[in-house]
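Researcher: Let's do a round of design. I'm pasting the structure tokens now; please hold your answer until I've finished.
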């Protein structure tokens, strides 16, 4: 599945040449050697969902093992065709947003940006989700974060970050494609940093000028290797060398 959208308004242009296929057997994983304790991050990715209605569980686009047993945190998209971000600590505390809108077109790519901004004084702004540059404001469920809460999954030392599966186990597999994945630890960036509207009125990617922080990474899926290094499918091209170890990732375009 070649990524079909290219930049259209910049003088230099920006084209995403590669995407990576995830299915019920595939994921990639990185375990940070140090923690940032950040109360802010930004996640950006182009997503194509192939599994809505066909998966037994909700697929994890991005997952981090939380503070308690089975307390995975992350961005989910699966059987109900809704997008959910959940922050769960393994006890009675769960904070999450879940869209009313459905994302079940297996032929459509869309751009997803999640901003985690726990210091924000406005409770409703601490988890912000954008699709193709437009903020989602209609949620079937919403429990916002306490102010200044450090994220339990992506900013801790020796705690796995996984793409395509539950971080603490082997469930909640994502069935679809991802491209141009950014994780900016300790930083908040608006969708306009990663995309723009072209001359035809379409939301298209652009090259971002961002800082990545301690546990940040950028995945372009341009390589073919199966090890966690710069030659691997999960190579981190941010400059941080936070390379992911791929498992059963064989389809790459």
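Researcher: That's everything. Go ahead.
Model: Designed sequence:
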């Amino acid at each position: 599945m070649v990524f079909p959208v290219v930049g259209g308004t910049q003088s230099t242009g920006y084209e995403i040449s590669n995407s990576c296929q995830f299915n019920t057997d595939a994921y990639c994983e990185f375990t940070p050697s140090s923690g940032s304790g950040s109360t802010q991050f930004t996640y950006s990715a182009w997503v194509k969902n192939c599994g809505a209605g066909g998966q037994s569980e909700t697929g994890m686009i991005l997952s981090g093992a939380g503070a308690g047993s089975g307390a995975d945190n992350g961005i989910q998209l699966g059987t109900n065709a809704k997008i959910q971000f959940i922050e769960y600590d393994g006890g009675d505390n769960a904070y999450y947003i879940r869209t009313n809108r459905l994302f079940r077109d297996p032929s459509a790519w869309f751009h997803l940006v999640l901003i985690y901004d726990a210091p924000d004084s406005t409770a409703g702004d601490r988890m912000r989700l954008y699709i193709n540059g437009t903020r989602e404001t209609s949620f079937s469920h919403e429990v916002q974060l306490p102010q200044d809460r450090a994220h339990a999954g992506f900013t801790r030392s020796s705690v796995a970050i996984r793409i395509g599966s539950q971080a603490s186990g082997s469930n909640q597999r994502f069935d679809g494609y991802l491209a141009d994945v950014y994780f900016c630890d300790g930083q908040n960036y608006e969708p306009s940093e990663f995309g723009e509207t072209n001359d035809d009125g379409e939301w298209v990617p652009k090259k971002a000028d961002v800082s990545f922080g301690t546990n940040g990474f950028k995945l372009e899926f341009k390589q073919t290797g199966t090890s966690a290094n710069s030659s691997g499918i999960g190579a981190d091209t941010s400059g941080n060398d936070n390379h992911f170890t791929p498992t059963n990732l064989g389809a790459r375009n």
